[in-house]
Fold this sequence. Notes:
Elements: H1 2-11, H2 18-31, E1 40-41, H3 43-49, H4 54-66, E2 70-72, E3 78-80, H5 85-109, H6 112-133, H7 139-154, H8 161-173, H9 175-184, H10 191-203, H11 207-226
Antiparallel strand pairs: 1-3, 2-3
Amino acid sequence: MIDATVSDILETDEPKTLVEAAYKRLRRDIIEGMHPPGEKLRVEHLKEQYDVGAGTLREALLLLVTDALVVGQGQRGFRVAPISLADFEDITRTRVLLETEALRQAIARGNEEWEAGLVGAFHRLSRAEQKLAEHDPGATEDWEKRNRAFHEALIAACPSRWIRHFQHILYQQSERYRRISLFRQPIPRDIHAEHQALVDATLARDATRATSILSEHILRTLDAVKQMPQDFFARGKRP
Length: 239
């Protein structure tokens, strides 16, 4: 399954092939805005920029199509997928439905091993947050990776593999928007405190409080993105 392949690539620190390396570099540059929404991705230009062959680039771009970060245009090539507030709101509210249900099931079924995994993921994320505050090189990528691992650890005891699978997809789809809200900081927030409260309620096995905190935590990012300038999303509306 293609989604599993993409997930495997993202989980590895070092790419195993030229395609994986090109995919990771392109993905990072799209998420960070170096290739803005709607931009035409011309293979003849990109192969010089990324120092890989045209065939390798096309394979990497096809992987990005499965990520929904790139749109294939038939014989006309590829373009960076547009962004919109309506799209992010849809992603966010669907993610809330799935992730809160996954957390409820995880709290009901999780054992001490699951608790230990969550505590470890939170500790690693906290260290990444410290580096982010200190503006360490590479801190952004490290934080994003550990934040993803934290949210996965949170629901790891959920018995439904389909809920976990679709939560993973929605998390990836929200990444571009999350970076906007985190690093442009349109509204003040203490993300570490949000994570701490979520861990505390989860370990206390208070499903009602934990799911409420998780819902608010996810929706807070939507609130932040809504504060972006009105012309921000218009950049992705190229013909």
